[in-house]
């Protein structure tokens, strides 16, 4: 392969099993949105029900075009006052701001990228241990449960739930100081953790070419089918209620490494695609693949063009 697969090193695995592995997540940006009608406005823009957002629980969502194509993936956190924090892939941050401003006629919307805030990931058996450094307590709850501190402005979000880890949003300088005092873990190791866990990212395992329901938006609690209208809702609802979800992202194991990524997955013909892969600390190759639900259900033999065989572990989920 021209680019080596991300690997979970023995050192990183030891930190996960016996301590806490920490890493800056520069691939994600923090936006802030506010205004007297910000919740009402977002209710008509995002796939998830904004009413599920509380100070103690963030929400996962997607932002769509009128044609139902994804603009970006979002995690939304209740901030101070009427402020909301929107976490989005850094490569889509400007497009997200532009998209939300586009339909804001009649709303006093303030939205922008907040360069002073950053995100770091805490993972491992003692992932909770550094939270007091930011004045944070361990969130009480499961997926996307939150805790917060007003001075300095900081938030902890359960991400993922199993094995339990956290994203911390805080002052960029404070995070940099904290990271400088921790054992170094390369971002490639965290990328390997993400893939091995089966946690797809927008812009990597799925993008504008896929409908979010094919990217397991339901399994990651990112869509409501009861909230009413929003941009892209008609196509999304039709796919759900009329059996239009034909493919999903699955966590898979491979007998050997792929020659390149992405690459086709075959039965007697090409049926799917391996979107990403990583090597764990025991030299196993784990990946995330887009596959037909029917093919997985029939337990068909799957392989890559180089002969590597594929075993489906489970659908990707929160």
UniProtKB/TrEMBL annotation:
Source superkingdom: Bacteria
Keyword Transit peptide included in the entry's annotation: yes
TM helices/strands, residue ranges: none
UniProt feature coiled coil, ranges: none
Statement: the UniProt record of this protein carries the keyword Thylakoid: no
InterPro entries membership: TrmE/GcvT-like, YgfZ/GCV_T_CS, YgfZ/GcvT
Keywords: Transit peptide
One example of a Gene Ontology biological process annotation: iron-sulfur cluster assembly
Protein name per its UniProtKB record: tRNA-modifying protein YgfZ
Naturally occurring in which organism (per UniProt): Mariprofundus erugo
């Amino acid at each position: 392969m021209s680019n080596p697969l991300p690997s979970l090193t023995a050192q990183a695995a030891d930190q996960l099993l016996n301590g806490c592995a920490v890493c800056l997540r520069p691939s994600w940006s923090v936006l802030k949105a506010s205004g007297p009608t910000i919740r009402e406005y977002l209710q008509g823009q995002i796939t998830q029900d904004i009413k599920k957002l509380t100070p103690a629980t963030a929400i996962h969502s997607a932002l769509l075009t009128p044609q139902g194509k994804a603009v970006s993936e979002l995690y939304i956190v209740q901030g101070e006052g009427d402020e909301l924090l929107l976490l989005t892939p850094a490569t889509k941050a400007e497009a997200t701001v532009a998209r939300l401003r586009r339909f804001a006629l009649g709303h006093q919307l303030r939205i922008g990228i907040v360069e002073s805030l950053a995100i770091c990931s805490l993972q491992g058996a003692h992932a909770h241990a550094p939270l007091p450094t930011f004045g944070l307590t361990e969130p009480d709850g499961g997926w996307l449960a939150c805790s917060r501190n007003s001075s300095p402005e900081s938030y902890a979000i359960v991400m993922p739930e199993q094995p339990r880890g956290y994203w911390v949003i805080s002052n960029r300088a404070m995070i940099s100081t904290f990271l400088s005092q921790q054992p170094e873990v390369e971002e490639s190791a965290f990328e390997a953790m993400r893939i091995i866990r089966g946690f797809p990212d927008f812009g990597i395992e799925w993008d504008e070419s896929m409908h979010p329901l094919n990217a397991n938006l339901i399994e990651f609690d990112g869509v409501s089918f009861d909230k009413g209208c929003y941009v892209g809702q008609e196509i999304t609802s039709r796919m759900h209620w009329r059996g239009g979800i034909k493919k999903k992202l699955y966590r898979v194991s491979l007998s050997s490494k792929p020659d390149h990524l992405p690459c086709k997955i075959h039965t007697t013909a090409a049926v799917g695609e391996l979107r990403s892969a990583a090597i764990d600390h025991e030299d196993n190759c784990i990946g995330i693949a887009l596959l037909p639900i029917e093919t997985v259900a029939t337990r068909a033999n799957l392989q890559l063009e180089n002969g590597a065989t594929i075993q489906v572990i489970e659908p990707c989920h929160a």
